[in-house]
Design goal:
This protein has 212 residues and is α+β, with helices and mostly antiparallel strands. Helix content is 25%, strand content 34%. It has a domain of 136 residues: Pnp Oxidase, Chain A, CATH 2.30.110.10. It binds flavin mononucleotide.
Length: 212
């Protein structure tokens, strides 16, 4: 067994006070996200998104957060992918973001809903043309014989849409995770971390501190 017990770090960057957090979790999220973004990470919108399959097995993968407001957190993907199939049967999902520069993590639980076609069109056409073609070339999460098969498909699609706009595939679009709970975690010395959760109750957000 490789023993990693000696790798140890103290978390000392600050505190999160449940009496001082924003009344709305989106305001708090925005403040923390902007703090993180200001540190110049390579890919600031990275998040882990969890879904649950028909056997109750959780799955996770990295996705990019593309928009957020008080209605939820939006990401784009293939509706026929593994995650798409999970969400079709069980809309429960969770987002996790870890911002090591600030020793912070945020987790969000809720349910996903598909965004409107118009919103998806607008984002799809804002992507580089090659990425639009890539969405057509990849049957995301399905088996592939080898890389050549994928590249060949890409070339076929490229020829097919030569000189034309690339249409939004029927199976491609966005999900909005509508939050029911959001937790903000700030690392603390001696593992005495600060945790503040917001839980949606009717139209209100109830705030409480949790044990670390
Ligand atoms: C940095 C990074 C960003 C990614 N962004 C996306 C994304 O926005 N949408 C997406 O469908 N897959 C994205 N992926 C690929 C996913 O992690 C995953 O492999 C893919 O969505 C298939 O997941 P599934 O089989 O669980 O459905 C990204 C991967 C990485 C490492």
């Amino acid at each position: 067994m490789i023993d990693l017990g000696d790798i140890r770090k103290e978390y000392t960057q600050g505190h999160l006070d449940e009496r001082k957090v924003a009344p709305h979790p989106l305001t708090q999220f925005h403040a923390w996200f902007e703090d993180y973004r200001a540190t110049g990470p390579i890919e600031p919108t990275i998040m882990t998104v969890a879904s649950v399959d028909a056997n109750g097995q959780p799955w996770q993968r990295i996705l990019l957060l593309k928009a957020y407001d008080e209605n939820g957190f939006v990401f784009f993907t293939n509706y026929l992918s593994n995650k798409g199939q999970h969400f079709a049967a069980n809309a429960k999902a969770s987002i996790h973001m870890f911002w090591i520069n600030q020793e912070r993590q945020v987790q969000i639980q809720g349910s996903v809903e598909k965004i409107g076609r118009e919103e998806a069109e607008s984002y799809f056409h804002s992507r580089p043309r090659e990425s639009q073609l890539g969405a057509w070339a990849s049957q995301q999460s399905r088996p592939l014989v080898n890389r050549f098969e994928l590249e060949q498909k890409f070339e076929e699609i490229k020829d097919q849409y030569d000189g034309q706009d690339v249409p939004l595939p029927e199976y491609w679009g966005g999900y909005r995770l509508v939050p029911e709970r959001i937790e903000f975690w700030q690392g603390g010395a001696y593992r005495l971390h600060d945790r503040v959760e917001y839980v949606k109750q009717d139209e209100d957000w109830v705030i409480q501190r949790l044990n670390p």
